[in-house]
Design goal:
mainly alpha; homodimer; globular; about 200 residues
Chain lengths: ~200, ~200
C-alpha cells in the first residue's frame, strides 16, 4: 500500500508512547525515566504524552497495566483517624483485589513481578514511591517504613492465598469477615510508635 | 551399546519413582494418590518406594522439591505454650526462608504455584493437610482454619516482599526484629477464640 503522507492517528501515537515507555521504564526504572525521553523516543512532543496519559504516573500505569490511580487512595488514607488506618487499608486493598476489573490486573502484575526481576524492579519503585512512601509518611516514627512493609506483607499474603492460590477457607470468606480479623493485626503495625520486644 | 540384562540400578529406580510420583500427584492430587499406584507405575514393589522415600509424604516432598519435613515442625508447635504459637511460627518460618539451602526451594515452589494451577493444587493439598490442618487443630475454635490462613498469609507475604520482590527495608531487616513485630500480629489470630467486630 502506498504511503498517504498523513500524520499517524491517535491510536498509533498512543501505542508508540506505550512501547517507548515500557522500554524506557525497563531500562531506567520508574524514578530514572522522564516523560520527555519517552516522548522523544516515540517521536512526539512531551505535551502529546501528557495529553494522552496525564502524568508520568498515568503513563507508567498504562504501560504496565496497573489498574488504579494510587493518589486518591493515599489521599483517602490521609483523611482517616490514625486508629482506622489498618481497617481502611484492608478494606481498600481487598476491594481492589475482590473486584474482577482490577483484581485480574493486580494478580497478573504480582505473578509477573515474582517471576521476572525487571518487572519486580519496576513495581518496587512505583509502589514504593506512590503507595508505601506516602503511607509511611502518615504512619511516622523511626520504623515507619518497616511497619508499612509488614502491613503490606499481610495484605499481599491474603491476596496470594485468597486470589492466586485459592486456599480455603480464606478464598471464600467475606470481605467484612476478613477486615474484622485484619484490622487489629494491621493496627499492631500502624497504630503504635515503638518497636515491641521479641518474645522467645 | 548392547543391553546387559542387569536389573536397573538404585538411581534409575529412584528416578522412575519420582517421575511416576509427579505424574500421579499431578493427576490425582496429594490426597488421591497412593504409594502403591506410584510403585506400580514405576514397576517396583511398594516396599521399594518406602525404602527410598520413607512415606508418601517423603516421596511427595522429593517429587516437588519441598525442602523440609513438616512433621517435626508441627510437633514443635504442639509443644509450645499457646501464647507462644505466633512467635514460634514466625521464627520457624523465617528460619526456613532465610536459610538459602531451604529458602531457594520454597521460593521456587511459591513461584511455580503462583503461575501453574497444577502446582498450586498440589501444594494446596500437601500444605493444607501437613501444616495448616495440624496448626488449626492446635489453635481450635470455630474459625481456626481461617485464622491459620490469615497467620500464614502474613508470613507468606513477608516471604514475598523480603525474598522474592526484595522490597526494602523488610528485605534487610534482622530475623529477630521481624519476629518482634510479627509476634503480636500473629497472636491476634492464633491467641484469641472469638471473631472480632469489623470496625468501620
Amino acid at each position: 500500500m502506498a504511503r498517504t503522507g498523513r500524520r499517524p492517528g491517535p491510536s498509533t501515537t498512543r501505542a508508540a508512547l506505550l512501547e517507548a515507555a515500557r522500554r524506557r521504564f525497563a531500562a531506567g526504572g520508574y524514578g530514572g525515566t522522564s516523560m520527555r525521553a519517552i516522548a522523544a523516543d516515540a517521536g512526539v512532543d512531551p505535551a502529546v504524552a501528557l495529553h494522552f496519559f496525564g502524568s508520568k504516573d498515568g503513563l507508567f500505569r498504562a504501560a504496565v497495566g496497573w489498574p488504579f490511580d494510587p493518589a486518591p487512595v493515599a489521599a483517602r488514607l490521609a483523611e482517616v483517624d490514625p486508629a482506622d488506618l489498618g481497617p481502611t487499608m484492608a478494606r481498600l486493598f481487598l476491594g481492589f483485589w475482590d473486584d474482577p476489573s482490577t483484581g485480574a490486573s493486580l494478580s497478573a502484575l504480582l505473578r509477573s513481578a515474582m517471576t521476572h526481576e525487571a518487572s519486580a524492579a519496576l513495581l518496587r519503585a512505583f509502589v514504593g514511591q506512590q503507595l508505601f512512601g506516602r503511607i509511611s509518611h502518615l504512619v511516622g516514627g523511626p520504623a515507619a517504613a518497616l511497619r508499612v512493609d509488614l502491613a503490606a506483607a499481610q495484605l499481599i499474603g491474603v491476596a496470594v492465598l485468597r486470589h492466586v492460590l485459592r486456599v480455603e477457607p480464606i478464598a471464600s470468606a467475606s470481605t467484612e469477615e476478613l477486615v474484622g480479623w485484619l484490622a487489629p493485626a494491621l493496627t499492631t503495625y500502624l497504630g503504635s510508635r515503638d518497636s515491641p520486644e521479641a518474645t522467645p
